[in-house]
Amino acid sequence: MNDHCRWTGRSRMIAVLAAGIVLLRTVPAVFAQRTEPLPEELKGVGVTEHLGELIPLDLEFTDSGGKPAALRQFFDGRRPVVLTLNYSNCPMLCSLQLNGLFDALRRMPWEIGDKFQMVTVSFDPLETPERARMTKEKYLKIYQRTGAAEGWHFLVGREENVKKLADALGFRYRYSESAKQYLHVAVTFILTPEGRISRYLYGVEYDPQTVRLSLLEAADGKIGSTADQVLLFCFHYDAEKGRYGPSAFRLMQLGGGLMVLIVAGSIWILRRREKAKKLKVPVES
C-alpha cells in the first residue's frame, strides 16, 4: 500500500472517530463513562456550550461573492439564524452534516431567507470565496428553494476572526498534521435575532420539527403563526435526546385551559337561552 492510500485510510478513520464524539453526547452519562479514552489526536476537540451568550458580531469576514461582511449584518433583530462552522475541503464530516441539515430544511415549510437566515463560516483560513461559492451552489441545487441564495451566507476569513467566533460558540477544533485535515464535531448552532446562542443541535441527521421549534424558541414569538406558538408551548427540549418532546405538564395546562373555556362557553350559552325564554312574549289564543 502506498503512502497516499495509507493516509487516506487514516484520514477517514479520524473523521469517523470525530463523528463518534457527537454520538457520545446523545447517550446516558453512565455509558459515556465506560467508553475508551479518546485517541490522542482527538483530545481537545469538542463543544462547551455557551447558551445565552452573545457572539462577537463585529467580526469581519468575506462572503462567497468576494465582498466584506460583518456578522452583524445577518442579525436583523427579527429573524433567528442557523449557524454552522464547516469548510469545503473537509473529507467527510462537514458534507455529512450539511447533507443532513439541508435534508431537514427541505422538509420544513419555512424557507431560508424568509423566517430565518443561515450563515456558514469556514474555519479553514486558506479557503477562498470562490471555493465557498462552489459549495454554496452545490447545496442550493439540493435545496431548490427560490430566494435561498440571499438568505444563506457562506463566509471565509482570517484565522484570528474564525478562532474568536469558535471560542464564543465553545467550538473546539484542531488541525491534524498527520491527517492533513481539521478535526471537529458536527454541531449546528441556533442563534437569536440579536446574536445570542439559543440552542446546540448535534449530529449529522436533523429532525425538521426540532429545527423548526428551535428557531421558534430563538425568535421568542417574532416568527411563526399562532398554531406554531401553541405547538412550542406544548413541547420542551430534551437535552438527553437532542430533540423536542411533548411536555406532560404543559399539555395538562392546555387541556385544563380548554376545559375551562368549554365549561364557560356552555354556561354562557345556557344563560343566553334562559334569558331568551324569559323575554319571549306568550302568544295570545
Polypeptide structure, described:
This protein has 285 residues and is of the alpha+beta class. It has two domains: 3-245, 3-Layer(aba) Sandwich (Glutaredoxin); 247-285. The chain has helices spanning 3-24, 29-33, 93-106, 129-143, 148-151, 159-169, 208-219, 226-234, 248-279; strands at 46-47, 60-63, 68-70, 81-85, 117-121, 152-156, 171-172, 174-176, 181-183, 187-191, 197-202, 235-238, 243-246. It has a seven-stranded mixed beta sheet with strand order 3-2-6-5-4-10-11, sandwiched between helices. Strands 1-7 form a two-stranded antiparallel ribbon. Strands 8-9 form a two-stranded antiparallel ribbon.
Radius of gyration: 25 Å
As a percent range, the share of helical residues equals 40-55%
Strand order of the largest sheet: 3-2-6-5-4-10-11
The number of distinct helices, counting runs of at least 4 residues, comes to: 9
Per CATH, the superfamily of the largest domain is Glutaredoxin
Quaternary structure of the protein: single chain
State the CATH architecture of the largest domain.
3-Layer(aba) Sandwich
Net shape: elongated
By CATH, the topology of the largest domain is: Glutaredoxin
Structural class: alpha+beta
String of helices and strands: HHEEEEHEHHEHEEEEEHHEEH
Main sheet: strands, sense, barrel? 7 strands, mixed
The CATH class of the largest domain, by name, is: Alpha Beta
